[in-house]
Amino acid sequence: MAKHTILYGCGHIAPAEVEGTEYEQQEKLDYLKICGRCPACKKEYRSAHPSLREA
Fold first, then answer.
1. Cα dihedral 17, 39, 7, 51 sign
2. What Rg do the C-alpha atoms of the chain give, in angstroms?
3. Phi and psi for 9 in degrees, rounded to 5?
4. Which pLDDT does position 50 carry in this prediction?
5. Among candidate residues 34, 39, 48, 35, the one with its CA nearest the CA of residue 14
6. Are 4 and 33 in contact, with CB atoms under 8 Å apart?
7. What is the DSSP string of 1-55?
8. What percentage of the chain has pLDDT greater than the value 90?
9. 50 to each of 11, 13, 38, 42, 44, how far by Cα in Å?
10. What is the pTM of this model?
11. Which residue in 9, 23, 45, 55 has the most C-beta neighbors within 10 A?
């Protein structure tokens, strides 16, 4: 698992942990940079949309 500090799609800078091969890690980071939410935004979004909370 690798840790990176990235600029998420939401506009915030936060750490990201990604697993997999080097190629898979880069794919995941690219996705997070374009349309991902940082952990704080993800938490806020899930609290605003209770039906999306994980069990």
1. positive
2. 12
3. -60, -25
4. 83
5. 39
6. no
7. -EEEEEE-TTS-EEEEEE-SSHHHHHHHHHHHHHH---HHHHHHHHHH-GGG---
8. 78
9. 23, 25, 18, 12, 10
10. 0.79
11. 9
